[in-house]
Amino acid sequence: MNHGTTAPALSVGMVGHAFMGAAHSHAWRTAPRFFDLPLRPVMSVVCGRDGARAADAAARLGWADSETDWRRLLERDDVDLVDICTPGDSHAEIAVAALEAGKHVLCEKPLANTVEEAERMSAAADKARAVGVRAMVGFAYRRVPAVTLARRLVEAGRIGEVRHVRAQYLQDWIADPEAPLSWRLEKDKAGSGALGDIGAHIIDLTQFITGERISSVSGHLRTFVDERPLALEHSGLSGTASTERGAVTVDDAAVFLATFTTGAVGVFEATRFATGRKNGIRIEINGARGSLAFDFEDMNVLEFYDAEEPAETAGFRRILVTEADHPYAAAWWPPGHGLGYEHAFTHQVVDLVTSLAQGEDPHPSFADGLQVQRVLAAVESSSDSRTWQEISA
Amino acid sequence: MNHGTTAPALSVGMVGHAFMGAAHSHAWRTAPRFFDLPLRPVMSVVCGRDGARAADAAARLGWADSETDWRRLLERDDVDLVDICTPGDSHAEIAVAALEAGKHVLCEKPLANTVEEAERMSAAADKARAVGVRAMVGFAYRRVPAVTLARRLVEAGRIGEVRHVRAQYLQDWIADPEAPLSWRLEKDKAGSGALGDIGAHIIDLTQFITGERISSVSGHLRTFVDERPLALEHSGLSGTASTERGAVTVDDAAVFLATFTTGAVGVFEATRFATGRKNGIRIEINGARGSLAFDFEDMNVLEFYDAEEPAETAGFRRILVTEADHPYAAAWWPPGHGLGYEHAFTHQVVDLVTSLAQGEDPHPSFADGLQVQRVLAAVESSSDSRTWQEISA
Amino acid sequence: MNHGTTAPALSVGMVGHAFMGAAHSHAWRTAPRFFDLPLRPVMSVVCGRDGARAADAAARLGWADSETDWRRLLERDDVDLVDICTPGDSHAEIAVAALEAGKHVLCEKPLANTVEEAERMSAAADKARAVGVRAMVGFAYRRVPAVTLARRLVEAGRIGEVRHVRAQYLQDWIADPEAPLSWRLEKDKAGSGALGDIGAHIIDLTQFITGERISSVSGHLRTFVDERPLALEHSGLSGTASTERGAVTVDDAAVFLATFTTGAVGVFEATRFATGRKNGIRIEINGARGSLAFDFEDMNVLEFYDAEEPAETAGFRRILVTEADHPYAAAWWPPGHGLGYEHAFTHQVVDLVTSLAQGEDPHPSFADGLQVQRVLAAVESSSDSRTWQEISA
Amino acid sequence: MNHGTTAPALSVGMVGHAFMGAAHSHAWRTAPRFFDLPLRPVMSVVCGRDGARAADAAARLGWADSETDWRRLLERDDVDLVDICTPGDSHAEIAVAALEAGKHVLCEKPLANTVEEAERMSAAADKARAVGVRAMVGFAYRRVPAVTLARRLVEAGRIGEVRHVRAQYLQDWIADPEAPLSWRLEKDKAGSGALGDIGAHIIDLTQFITGERISSVSGHLRTFVDERPLALEHSGLSGTASTERGAVTVDDAAVFLATFTTGAVGVFEATRFATGRKNGIRIEINGARGSLAFDFEDMNVLEFYDAEEPAETAGFRRILVTEADHPYAAAWWPPGHGLGYEHAFTHQVVDLVTSLAQGEDPHPSFADGLQVQRVLAAVESSSDSRTWQEISA
């Protein structure tokens, strides 16, 4: 075991250093300490528009250097991989440029703010792949061990043909009408609201677990609170509370019905107004031979119902996904010692680095990200037209 | 306390004696033993088409007499109230005739198989009311104490303005493709499948708890298994297994989005294919000030989140709805001694008898049942047209 | 099927008509309506010291007649079985006399207030058995379907050799120091407090489920509140609140360690001071091949862990004990339609009547009740001596 | 914010690099990245008996250097604090020497293998404190946010006077009789079995949360499997399975009753034979005004029952301990994004470093560790004598 210490280096440059930047930094730092990686991640440089903040982020998050222009980051020799943690409106430009510069790319979700951008990114990824440059989109929840186990059980046929998918992503952080505006509530930066921010996750997760794709949707978007107080940085004031208000230009909640390519029926709901639910990613899948259920608020557990069990002893079993046999678990602690949110990002780094070393495509690909983007667009379009919309292949 | 023993009699005639008939009989027998009723139910007569079976049912279920023709039952002087427990295709004819004969009516849900029938029934109920004859539709789940408590908390403003309604009725009894045909899978008898049989319940429950009405829907019906083995009575054979198959003419699952009159967004799912879920009536309602959650598979519990609680100690609380202060509970056992499925029917009798004695309209009314029928029809129509449908007022 | 209507009669006389009397009455009334009994229970007569109250109870609970002296009840020809629902201090006298009068006996738990009384009762039961007269003690929780299933799984070897038993009976109805005195808090009537009232249940349940007996104990009894306001009937006043206080002469809580005959280790706790727990009978049993867990506050569920399952998919499964294959369930409702507290009493009647018709001994026997009494006595004695006590065989 | 980058250094030397060493290393590395520490931890040197393994551990776990003799580590100038992660038999010697050498000490639990050792350590800590050198014992579970919140609520009087403590630490890793011997099953290295290894945690946790101390115990130790296969390293063979067996010299399970100084009654159970329970630290505390419940297998949740709430809406609330107002949570992720096992160690570092910078005593102190040791000894002694044992003050 080299524990990454003698393995070839993989130098990383990260763009953006907010919530996602912190999670990614922790992952790059932690992965080689618990997993025996074939490449040794080097945290070279972090990029942010404000120089002082970027330097501070470098110190705080553990990057050797900082930059203020992502274009300069792409020019650096000590960057083999660009990790994009900015809002969605900048993804396409940075990712395409990075791939063209021969840098591997890990891009946070959603892949882009529009289908058109996602198509350009996916095309760029295809082109880059031909010369050994890889691209991955950061749907990190795929690497929660319970989710990975769910995929494994479906793949092994344990629940049979999938009939029902029900998925909810429930938060409540803006249920209060006086919660201030943020970039996540502005369409030009965020692309959409609950739909793209959290709905994208449950689209990706259900397609990942089932191995199927959504083929048509009937959706409904809703904005419960149209106007909110400007945060201070918006109003240009400082030290004084703003009384100005700004328009919320994205959805607060998105609900949609879906059909899957192989016949399953789906029901989806993404909202920031589910009072009392904090990060409730709930997925239940019913198949002909069994069922699976997951709730991120109890993230170390996967529930599994095996319909082949005699009725006398059949029941949803609460699998504590911390056994050495479970995905990723052997690298961590003994059974029953649960993992947390950030571990999914660490596992994402592990899988990405492993794919790069083996010359394989990491998943989810930009094509996967594009497909999610198409579903998001179809939901929006369906909400406008009040009819079902097909997802183009 | 007269415990119904010296109270005036209320003579009951019941039509149908299968699953629902057993539940209703138990309720008529049990209500006066635990509740101090203003009228004393007398179980006069039960009606079934087959004379021997009807007589056996009378003995088994505790009715004094039996009939084979419901028209004769309407002519009897020892019948003040007609309790209709037959399949939906006969509801309209029996109920209208009974009301016209001056008998109070308790009619099992769904009120009817079509909107037209339900309209006739509702009109008959209106006419009867004018002469002091009452009609009630048997959405018994309203009287599960946890559900009644949910209504009480919404009414008291404890969850504020309702934003999200999510409701599922999950069963799995025909998930196996070899489960035989039954009248519940035939459109001419049952009207619809999962939609009308169990979807009707969650429509009524969510409207009851929120005090709001569904105003538009986008629905999708699905039949996963088109053909099933005939049960022996269908095939005309006896003592021999049938190899014949018959067509399933109703939906196996129904999903729909909904908007409510005052702006809430709803997501509904009713299915008989949710492997591992047996009678999973799950309702969650998110409001501006709090949330409520219920699951019939843990029916003595209501979960309540109070958003006015400080964040440090806020959380969904598991209210065991068995305290003397809780609906119906004082009549039964000490705290923590849970009730079962059939208690809801007993409570239905209690409320119905009380309304009759007080000369008030019991709820849910036939008008409520008609409105549910309109939602069911709109879901079907929406599934056909693949567009949203409005519910006429 | 005769549904008990043409079966030979079994005439019942019940002594006592409070909480337990109501539960037993419901059971005698309900059992023949759902189960096909070999004997037809006839609710002949109820006995209570106060004539007016007894007559009222007869009307309310459905008994044909009432008596004020249990000795007269024993003389009646229309009493084949005496059902004893009085406080524990009168059990021995009534039960022994009833058995000697040739009446079958169903006696509420705990069997008696002292080992000596229980020994006399057990001896009387042995003598009566010789002439075909049967005795049963009413540990009704054995007949909660999930509990019966637990016994069945242990008997089938599904959890292997039992190593750990942990059992709690948690209530909180006197956690408030101002809750008034009741006969349950007075040693001369109740024998003991939490220990005998509810601790007796978990002793019986764990011995029943495991098929093993407790062989030694180390116990500790505690009275948290020594003095309480007299209830009005105690103080002799009426219509005025009492300011007098009386002494609590029993334990508020009892905890004890135990060893079982075949080597398992047990931990027991019975309390009326577990704030927030209403009727929390929790039993967990860990064996070499699996584990079982039960909580009465979710009484339709049995949790089962099968250690022979591969680690990847092993987990406690939540068995909803409502399938036709489950104990007692086929007589009631479809899967997922849960039962309540009083169903256990109905099942007790079913099993008792069946045993009587078949000339077999019903369980639990008076000998079983005596053994529980010995454990209770050993716990008390151990609490006094602060050493372990053996249970005599 | 300096994020530890410009703060004065705190150089750490760690002894031992197995399971606990990995957890501590992660904590030292991670704490300054998420918390704004007043001292900057420097991971100077790790010590292990085998030079190659120690060097490998240094590389893998991120220590700058390695040593093979802990005495040399104490001599180094680049060690301000010694972090002891070895088995219990070496704690006393290393800790006392470190304190005498003027090094702060963080010592893993249990503090020692005997009361005598713990007394020496506590005396050494007292002496060191006088010259500003601090000692802390590593009961890390105190720093699980839900546990810290429990302490906070008790301290604020939210559950009132404590009446019941029930605590279980349930594991099953040696339930299989063929699981091999390890040092944890040998008395000379481990001191005791389940009692000291995991029982120590629930003793510390319940005393911490309640703010009370255990004053007397009645205990029972049990070894279910006396003999086990030697692991290969024991047998001296390599590459071949051993058929030799060795004696298990510690308890497999420990159960005990306890009284607390202020009158609460406790029931404790620690076992490695609770089939299906992996790391089930379950603590429930019932007080006069409320109750708390915690289960480490759902570690981000604290359950709280407030008895001052009206009965209608009272219930155990499931507090997801991830709000900014909750202990430690603001440094991590948004609400609902749960933490894992290792976070408790990171919080331990945060609190320790903060105490050191402020010149305050960190908790739990060596005196706290000594008191736990005395309870452990009393349980063992009680198990031998079969009588209650007092805990000396």
What does this structure look like?
Four copies of one chain form a homotetramer. Chain A has helices at 19-34, 51-61, 70-75, 91-100, 115-129, 145-155, 187-190, 194-210, 232-235, 343-358, 366-385; strands at 9-15, 40-47, 65-67, 81-84, 104-108, 135-138, 162-170, 214-222, 227-229, 245-247, 253-260, 265-271, 280-287, 290-295, 301-306, 316-320, 389-390. Chain A is an alpha/beta fold and 393 residues long. Chain A has two domains: 4-140, NAD(P)-binding Rossmann-like Domain (Rossmann fold, 3-Layer(aba) Sandwich), CATH 3.40.50.720; 144-339 and 366-385, 2-Layer Sandwich (Dihydrodipicolinate Reductase, domain 2). In chain A, β2 (40-47), α2 (51-61) and β3 form a beta-alpha-beta unit. The longest helix of chain A is centred in the last third of the chain and has 20 residues, at 366-385. The model of chain A has no long low-confidence stretch (mean pLDDT 95). β16 (316-320) of chain B pairs antiparallel with β16 (316-320) of chain D, so a sheet runs across the interface.
